[in-house]
Amino acid sequence: MPGISRKAAIALAASASLALLATACTGQSDSAASDDASKETTINFWHAWSAPGEVKAVQSLVDGFEKAHPNIHVDVVGNMTDDKMNQALRTGGAKAPDVISSFTTNSVGKFCSSGALVDLNPFFEKSGVDPEKTFPKAMNEYTQFDGDRCAVPLLGDAYGLYYNKTAFEKAGITAPPKTWSEFEQVAKKLTIPQGDTYKQLGFMPNYHGWETTTEHYLGQFSPTYFDKNGKSNVGKDPAFEAAFTVQKKLVDALGGYRKLETYRSKLGDEWGPKHPFHTGQVAMQLDGEWRLGMALDTKPKFDIGVAPLPVPDDQADQYGKGYITGTIAGIAATSRKQNAAWELVKYMTTDTDAVVNFSNAIHNVPSTLAALKSPKLKYDPRFKTFLEIAANPNSTTAPASVNGGVYLTTVQEFGYAYESGKATDLKAGLKKTAAQIDTDIAQAKQP
Amino acid sequence: MSTSTLRAKHRRSTLRTLAFLSPWLIGFTVFFAYPLLSTVYFSFMHYDGFKPPTWSGTKNWTYVFEHYPFFWPALRNTLWLVLVMVTLRVAFGLGVGLLITKIKTATGVFRTLFYLPYLAPPVAATMAFAFLLNPGTGPVNSLLEKAGLPTPGWFNDPTWSKPALTLLALWGIGDLMVIFMAALLDVPKEQYEAAELDGATPWQRFRYVTLPNISPIVMFAVVTGVIQTMQYYTQPLIAGKVASGVIQGAGTQFEPGYPDKSTLTLPQLVYNLGFQRFDYGSACVVALVLFALSMAFTALLMRRKGGLINAGER
């Protein structure tokens, strides 16, 4: 019946087009913060923590809030990935989160520019809290984009250097290296070859060596990722060339990319007890503050030393700085209970005792200047190094960008090519990387 | 009969036909036509999933084809997998099917043994393979080393990552084996007897009796294999993640494709662009490329001359 099929096809196409037009015309509905936070209400809080101890710590943080605000009840949902949160922020609805907390600071630019999370500046003003005076500089920086403060730091991560004190003593090294050239010497001294592999490697410099990402190395060189016009500075700021050169020199000095990659593939995983720093296979490790607790849990056969990461030779006076990132919290634009949600966010992120208790339970760096100095903070004396890195005004972070962390992965992609010898012209490669970053941003910024 | 009565009859018949067709029509509209038309529509829009979409002309297309550094490597990998993995899977599936239909004793045990791996969830199977094929600590390389053979880097080496994925796909051949076994057992016995009487060799019996009889099933296996491989997502992503050692933690971002973009596939780009970069327009472009490729491959395989089955067999 060809006639019927044709008619059916036309009807089908027409209804599909109508449906398409109908969906195409739906935009994001505006949601104003008009709820009364003093009335009885329940809000949803989604977070990413999943380990039993962490989940318990979040619950006790929320319990503290509910005690202080008996009218606001919080439904807590844990173990939420960024992808699930993105989806829920898009769709909204009664079960969607009012408050979210994500591990990825890289998403802040996307969250702010898309309007997925509300700008918290008016809330801060209304509450008389000055974020500049409340949060450390780097954390203050990574929670906003283009003047839109759509996120707040909720505990932070600082990166430093872990070293095997016993191996240091055996090699006759008395103090952790402070500059990258000292670091190279120390890493070489600590490297003990065994056949075509290593008995002990001084340091795993490859970008796939977990936290030895390009952005973590770059943090020590205080790079400016973007110029005043928002264009990529990767091809212009000498910090990038310097950082790539230092890393490549380390790779070559310690055995070359291929040999190091083969060794790396034989090592235990980053979050397991057989981490090569725990087992003594690698003598120095660039890592976050969480490593100390994880390493001590495995009862290693050596003493662990902690220090800031080295700085470039010409910035020796800035020794003590580090790369900072962390967890963020924000309020969903689709939330109809934004005032109540703000009460929770304000409590979790600015109440000194709440921040300190949470930090004690999770073993992350506190995210307010007051909490960093709080006498109630309980920690291993070595943990203090990370508190100092977090409070150091020279510490750096990677700025928020309209397309999130895309520029960081573009830099990283070039890093992989350069360390493996696939790319040899550093200057030309960095210029090409900058051009790619600009193109990606232009694509994301379309009107 | 008057014209109006005829018209009314015709209308009734039309409505009746539409009513019978409605389950398919609804399914077709909701699950095929609407998503496809939306994808075409959004490929010309700038849309981040939050703000209303805006017209961007061919910008997304230009971006994907000219500026998105992952597109061409992913396309090359996808085509490689379609050609190599599908061919080997069909050949291996048919081989195992043939072998198992010939076995006289303990057939149940062998069938179960070959089918079992297919039941393993893809993530678990990939992680197990990443463990077995670990260049440093995996048992496969230990055995190769003991035998004095070269030890590949498998998932850690761009040259070996796709062959490693192919091995994984061949291991999970159970679905194809069952289909081929059913087809092989359906080939009329008298045709084999006739061929034997004519003095046909085993190869000739396979070529002139078995193959023509099962060619529609081979066709089915190839077409569904091509479509499955076009949607290949989980295994390369997990293999890349496990082998690279990067587990997404605070402040770190993982781009798929380790090592050296060799395990990137087009579906990974759809996810990366749409759900991680919030660039739905470009994600739609990649999805349409996938759709066009699947259609092209299927048309090529099903064409009247030179396709996998000839006109007489349809």
TrEMBL record, chain A:
Compartments where located: Cell envelope
PROSITE patterns: PROKAR_LIPOPROTEIN
Organism, scientific name: Streptomyces koelreuteriae
Role description: Part of a binding-protein-dependent transport system for a sugar.
Protein name: Probable sugar-binding periplasmic protein
Entry-linked InterPro entries: Bact_solute-bd_prot1, SBP
Transmembrane segments: none
Lineage: Bacteria, Bacillati, Actinomycetota, Actinomycetes, Kitasatosporales
Alphabetic keyword roster: Signal, Transport
Signal peptide: 1-24
Protein family: Belongs to the bacterial solute-binding protein 1 family.
Automatic annotation (TrEMBL), chain B:
Domain of life, source organism: Bacteria
Keyword check for Cell membrane: yes
Topology of this chain in the membrane: Multi-pass membrane protein
The ABC transmembrane type-1 domain, residue ranges: 75-301
Record keywords: Cell membrane, Membrane, Transmembrane, Transmembrane helix, Transport
Keyword flag Transport: yes
Main location group: membrane
Membrane-spanning segments: 21-44, 79-101, 113-133, 164-185, 206-227, 280-301
Location in or out of the cell: Cell membrane
CDD domains given in the database record: TM_PBP2
Family affiliation: Belongs to the binding-protein-dependent transport system permease family.
Protein name in the entry: Sugar ABC transporter permease
Species per Swiss-Prot/TrEMBL record: Streptomyces koelreuteriae
